[in-house]
Structures are given as structure tokens and as C-alpha cells.
Amino acid sequence: MHYPSKNKVRMLLVAASMFLLAAGGLQNANADVKQENAVNAERVQKGKVLFSENCQVCHQEGGAGKPGVAPSLTNKELLSAASDRFLLDTIRDGRPDTAMPTFGQLLKDEEIQAIVSYLRSFGTEPVKGGMLDNDRKAMGDPRLGARWFSQVCAGCHGVNGEGYEGSGSGTAIGKSGFLGKASDGFIRYIIKNGRSNTPMRGFAGPTGMANLNEQEIDDIITYLRVLQK
Fold it and tell me: 152: which of 170, 173, 207, 210 fits an S-S bond (Cβ 3.0–4.6 Å)?
């Protein structure tokens, strides 16, 4: 009878040990994923309850929004373009001079994060917020931007971007509460793509409402920054 050499036995034992270690590592990884998913699901459910208690009265069930009252918070464009920081800071600080109050003294940080996790659960596209926040600064002519804003934006957002206070159906994009948190990349993305489930439609390309080109969009953003100042 032929017996395997000591080296072969040693190699077989090493291979078996490596297999058992890999299997154990895979089991641990699967357990970690399951635990993380459970934590995330719990956070989303907590956020849903907090949203119902604090946000739903204006933003409606499921964050669908209502024109003239509060914008949709669960449309795919916003959830793709907005960074977590944008959402967290907006909930915490509110939007001064609008109906959006500050929740920073009412809710704990982890509760605000839970609301953001709940909103994120509606997302259907990759989150580009971080990339957009690092996008180039708008370099435009505010005088031309004022003209474009008057022609294509003021009808909904108000003459000076005052939003609902100007009896418009759009939000107050000319006030510091928005402009202080929104990057040029974020604004550019929303102008191009619009926000579904709201009156805001995309303005770029041949199918856009105004077919604005890159420079014209930058002109509008530059004008908004003048309003911010």
C-alpha cells in the first residue's frame, strides 16, 4: 500500500486549514452583512416614524410634496444630486425666511440621520452628491443670468427667488438657506434634469423646457450667487 509522503500530508493539512478559515471568514462576513442590513432597516423604520411626526404635515406622506406648500423630498433627481451633508444640514438648520423650521434643537443627530436614511430608501439612482459638490464653480455673467432667470425661473420661483412667499409653485432658491448649502454642481444638475413629481422640469437639451446650454446655466447660477450676497 502506498502512503502519501509527509510533505503531501502537510500540504493537505494546510489546504484544509485554509479552506476552514476561508469558510469561517465567509460566514462571519455574511453575518456582518445581515447585521448591517438589520441595523439599516431599523434606522429606516425609525426615520419613517420621525418623518411622520415632524415632516409629513408639510412634505406629505412618503415625502411626495405639494406644490406651493413643500417640495418633494423623495424624487429620484434630488436623492441622486443631494449629499447626505446637504440633507442633514437642511433638516438641522431649516430654511430661514421660509416655512421650513430648524429641527436641530428638537431632534438628536442620530434622529436626523434616521430621517435621511428613510428618504434615501426611496432612491432609485446612484448618489452623486459628493461628486457634484466637488464639481467646478460656475463662471458666468450675472447680468445674462438675471435675464434668463426672469424668463425661465421667476414664474415659479419668484422674481428674486423668494419661492412660495412670492405666490410661486417653486421653492425659495434665491435665499441663503438654500444657496448656503447647495453647491454649484448640485444646482447645475437640478437645472439640467429637473425634479420629477414637482413642477420643476429639466431645462437642458433639445427636450428641455428652455434648451439652456452650459454657459447659460452657469449664468443663472452666477446670478443666484449674487442674490445670496
Answer: 210
Residue 210 counted as domain residue: yes
Say how far apart CA 111 and CA 96 lie, in whole Å: 21
Please check whether residue 190 lies inside any domain of the structure: yes
Which three cell numbers mark 54?
Answer: 415632524
CA–CA gap between residue 122 and residue 76 (Å, rounded): 8
What whole-number distance in Å separates Cα of residue 215 and Cα of residue 208? 15
pLDDT digits (tens, 9 = 90+) for 35-76: 455 658 999 999 999 999 999 999 999 999 998 899 999 999
Alpha carbon 125 to its chain centroid, in Å, reads: 10
Residue-by-residue DSSP string for 178-229:
HHTT--HHHHHHHHHHB-TTSS-B--BSTTSSS-B-HHHHHHHHHHHHHHH-
The answer to whether 149 and 220 are in contact (CB under 8 A) is: yes
User: For residues 104 and 38, what is the distance between their CA atoms, to the nearest angstrom?
Assistant: 27
Cα 195 → chain centroid: 12
**Residue 205: what pLDDT?**
78
Give domain status of residue 87, yes or no: no
Go through the chain and tell me how many residues it has. 229
| 163, part of any domain | yes
Please determine, for residue 147, whether its predicted confidence score (pLDDT) is greater than 80: yes
d(CA 184, CA 198): 21
Q: pTM surpassing 0.90?
A: no
Q: Of all helices (H) and strands (E), which one includes residue 85?
A: helix 84-93
